[in-house]
Amino acid sequence: MNGAVLVTGVRPYGEAPCDLLIDGSVIAGVFDVALRPLVLSRVQPARVVEGDGLIVLPAFVDLHTHLREPGGSDQETIATGLAAAAAGGFADVFAMANTDPVTDTPERVAWIRDQAAAVSRVRTHPVGAVTVGLGGAQLAPIAELADAGVTLFSDDGRCVDDAGLMAAALSEAAEHGAAIAQHAQAHALAGAGQINAGFASERTGFAPWPVAGEAAVVARDAVLAAETEGHLHVCHVSTARTLEVVRQAKALGWPVTVEATPHHLMLSDDLAALGAPLFKVNPPLRSRADVAALRRAVVDGTVDSIGTDHAPHTVAAKQCGWPLAAFGMTGLETALPVVASVLERDGEVDWRLLNRVMHDQPARIGGLPEVADQQVRAGDEATLVFVDDRAELTVNAARQRTKALNTPFQGVTFRFAVVSTLIAGRQVHGDLL
Ligand SMILES: [Zn+2]
Predict the structure, then answer these.
(1) Which N-terminal residues, if any, form the signal peptide (predicted)?
(2) 19 is catalytic
(3) In which domain, by residue range, is 421 found?
């Protein structure tokens, strides 16, 4: 085992301390710390690294990343976006299709994959558009895109408003084992929405974005999923009403999965009502009751996955007054601290639950079963994230890897921080190894 590394005293899933032996790209052993003399009598690792109580988990999977390239490199580049992903503990990211040009041909899928592979080890999975040019009028070549390896389709940024197109998309994607990720925003109800309807819209005078604009689309799409046996994945669910619809659909066994974002789990519309465009996001920040319902839905399993909806923007696009400001927040580098904080109860975090919603389930929804099966155990790939749960991390946009400054958490201090990220044994972030 020349070159093997023994990381001592780390806690898989936050449980009892273990020594982790990493040999090349794989985990060669997960040993009780008391047995260290036995391990060291058999193995002479090239290095022994003090893990000092760090939590170790399989590295995260994000089904909802906006890398902005091609076409938006003033906001983010594939290189800066993937550096942010690595810093956030992500080994796999799904790059949304709303770029310029839109990812709606196999050639554009290949271009993104090639660009990403040239600059980062973070595994980049291009999302295919549902409709040509995100135009909402004509189905994209789903079969061709699936043949090119696309496992997730989405017009995210826009809703597939047309029920006929949505049904056709679900059917066709299902033939290729792929899911349709819907940005649920009924045009007639919420097309012009700027801020949560109710207190926030009344307080600010900005156009209301009502709960029904989301829940009604999810109800419709859940029926279409049941009828077509296609997999509906609901992006960034934000309201208690939508969760009621989803619970019904799941109870009936309909093929529906649901994503929540870290920001919707922590921030509410009273913050948005203060009027700073950094808090402008789509769907909007909702009421505190919705935030509480969303947290419960993560704990009870109604929410399947956390997706960051990392949406980098230029300073100009966010500093121009609320009505003109772009929707969106960065999220890759704050996802772990925010989600761990939200799940914390009496000082303890359910790391198994966090692993399910940030690794196992997103990997499975995204069509990566071999990634979903990876655990912290002997024989599995050393694609891991090391987390400090006694950190004092104050978010500073200027020090993040993302090119963009539009984090909503500027100046906020978290107890949780990503220390290091490994992909197949190679450190892609941090200096632990
Ligand atoms: Zn969206």
Answers:
(1) none
(2) no
(3) 5-56+380-400+413-429
